User: Fold this.
Amino acid sequence: MTSNASILEGNVVSARTGTALGLVINPFAGMGGSVGLKGTDGKEILRQAVRRGASPHANDKAADALSLLSTVLPEVGIFTASGVMGEDAACNAGFRPIVLHRPRRGESTGADTIAAACAMVHRGVDLLLFVGGDGTARDVLTAVNDRIPILGVPAGVKMHSAVFATNPNNAGLLAAFYLARDPTVLIRDAEVMDLDEEAFRNDRLSAQLFGYARSPFERRLSQNAKAGGRPGEDAALDAVARQVAASMQPGRLYILGPGTTTRRVSNALGLPSTLLGVDAVLDGKAIGLDLDERSLLKLMRHREAQIVVGVLGGQGSLFGRGNQQISAEVIRRTGRDRITVIASIEKLIALGGTPLHVDTGNEDVDALLSGHIRVETAPGQSTPFRVTT
Assistant:
């Protein structure tokens, strides 16, 4: 594949005449993440997110993707839904979109996503680019089935599916490469997964495979589906968790990310924890469970902080997938040098040489995190691992 850098130095590639892209944005995707709601499926959860101070950012993610797309393929035709479901973002990126669907009540729902995607299938677009999370991926799959390829711009809270690019910029690049028939971009059958949000909020992980979608794939740009734990990991992870717990310093706030790996640290301390939330520990005591961004920032006032996180299996995600409460601002205030990453050597090997990914929504913080970071794999053992966006 032509390098990303050379393409963005002014070399515009060409798509075949009449190439068409479908665009659907879930404008509310991801709003529950920073406020600790673990999703925004349903009107009541959306209202809770707004009450907690959440703001929409899906159109910002769309803008990033479309900016790259317009640089590479400025003449591609775009079919979309009205307003914040796609029309606004496409116009702002310099395209002249054709609107195929308008929400009846002025406020989009999952039914609107399905209706818009169906209209794009009937129009015969070459690729449907959607902006959202796993719930949006399910709605798109319902409409599309295997009739056209789909590609996700990651903007949700839950993104376990393999139809997403690793970040919005890479979604724009991958869409452009596919539409330009780059020979190194393949079409694969990608899993569409989703979690039961109600179970998720009650600290139970209930994932389900909803089907497979045809989706463009390029190893550096595409996200894999989330993978579970592997045999033999438990003993090493328990031991390194005990080491992390024993090394905690008095007066320092420890922010523990979600997942079974970091829960082992709480277990080593004999403290309660939330499997799928973000907790805080100070001086050997749990001072906050299932915290949102605002609560974390409040606890961090006048205190040094340390972040302890695991690696999302299969995807290699470090920040930006399921732990959005640990926001760019939380990371910035903590500092790169006070981030502890725990993962088994088996999980790192399973990534097949691909780097860890960050997608905090803030370019400066993503750049701060990029490079190499040490991953604790066993007591007294760590390995440097590359981090990229």
Residues 5-11 have pLDDT under 50 and may be disordered. The chain has 14 helices and 16 strands. The CA atoms of residues 20 and 209 lie 29 Å apart.
